[in-house]
Known about the structure:
By secondary structure, the chain is α+β, with helices and mostly antiparallel strands. It has helices at residues 4-18, 41-45, 146-153, 160-164, 174-184, 198-217, 257-260, and strands at residues 23-28, 50-56, 59-64, 68-73, 79-83, 95-101, 106-110, 117-122, 264-268, 271-275.
Amino acid sequence: MPELPEVETVMRGLAPVMLNNKVSKVKLYRKDLRVPFPKNMEGELAGLSIVSLKRRAKYILVYFDGGLILSVHLGMSGRILINPKNNKYDLKKHDHMVITLQDGVQIIYNDPRRFGMVFILKASELETHAAFRHLGPEPLGNEFSAPYLVESFKNKKASIKQALLDQRMVVGVGNIYASEALYQSNINPQKLAGEITAKKAEELVIATRDVLRRAINAGGSTLKDYRHTDGGLGYFQHNFQVYDQEGKACPDCNCNIDKTGGIKRIVQSGRSTFYCPSKQK
């Protein structure tokens, strides 16, 4: 599933072609994804000018003049591709939505597994909308801090890894980047969230931000379906320290792989976690 760095990368790829442009037409090729497409979506968006693009958690938000927002969630396998103006495009299998802009550029939403979501809301409803009202702070924002973590995780019996994946606590970190941030901050992923100290919380905040920023700069991680808006791949997967590195030597400590067996893989809440037991306490 695309996480914060992948969604941020897609949003940044869309901005140069969508900003200050207008929607010419919208064409839908099925009635629904995980939820139905909005009723009269084609008519509601046609002619509107795009004034800004933002990301909230794993949602891409396209702001229009007049106060409407088009919200797009990529789900498990969603992709958004840009077809340049004056370039003939042949519809592909699993292309479910095509937005044609005034200058002829096409924005294509493709989703083989159809777990994505597309809906329209008013900007004034954003904080109270069902999809957003439960969301925690952005990990790259000022609200995500050591005092916030200590207070939010107080008395939590869940593991620190599970807590990082809880969208009510902090949004968008995701399974891969939680493993990488915990490794970088020397925290065992099985440690109870309620036991984190202020010092370790500060280290975790710094590590989480660093991992996410480096992943954004690398265009995200491509493991299966994820692609950039130009069809290219992310390459942060080449920088993984522990994720998907089971049995390999820990890159940042002197543990004896013959004795320790290298990086370990465990399953937490049905998700794979990778860590170094010697380094992460």
